[in-house]
Amino acid sequence: MYQRQITYLWVISLIGVTIVLKFSPFFCFLRYPANITLLRGNHESRQLTQVYGFYDECQRKYGNANAWRYCTDVFDYLTLSAIIDGTVLCVHGGLSPDIRTIDQIRVIERNCEIPHEGPFCDLMWSDPEDIETWAVSPRGAGWLFGSRVTSEFNHINNLDLVCRAHQLVQEGLKYMFQDKGLVTVWSAPNYCYRCGNVASILSFNENMEREVKFFTETEENNQMRGPRTGVPYFL
């Protein structure tokens, strides 16, 4: 009996209370490499892993930074974007004023730390906003981009949708702009163990018909709550 093959695409930053939680998608990839694709997010960087506890956890558990160093070296090999059936572009953050075509993404040198500016940085850090074109991002990296930018990018590249993560969405999934040419999919329920948000998974069948599955925090995850204090920007 034929069983339909399912491919899973992670567009999120890998964040968790422990190393195992952070790297569970990598373990899935090692076990099912033909079914798992991992995209790099802004937290897959040496700088942010030193700010948000991963570096300290490795030091505390192993007595040195070797585990952290090996893990962050792996980050450099993650791909920056993915295309589903030629019509859906998946990227962690958003668009860039330096990127007009998908071919320009393909030639970005990605085997390095995430830079502080430029197209690589923008793909990791940019956010959609209710504007027309571009604006400076309050994050200090990437850009805010609007409806006209997204519509033109989709038209030039024959896309129906830009699918991204990067921003907390209380309802788990949110379409942007009048033509719904961009969607934010958030898959971390009760983010930081305190936000109370729903999470979602967006799936496409062989006909590119979309289905959204919403879910909430599991009891097991609820019992793994870490300290409630944290860097505000983490939200």
What's the short version?
With 235 residues, the chain is of the alpha/beta class.
Word description of this protein:
By secondary structure, the protein is of the alpha/beta class. 27% of the residues lie in helices and 20% in strands. It has 8 helices and 12 strands. The strands form 4 sheets. A 5-stranded mixed beta sheet has the order 3-4-8-10-9. It has a 3-stranded mixed beta sheet with strand order 5-7-6. Strands 1-2 form a two-stranded parallel sheet.
Strand order of the largest sheet: 3-4-8-10-9
Q: Report the principal-axis shape.
A: globular
CATH homologous superfamily label: Metallo-dependent phosphatases
Count up the domains.
1
List keywords for this structure.
single chain, 235 residues, Purple Acid Phosphatase, chain A, domain 2, three-stranded mixed β-sheet, 20% strand, globular
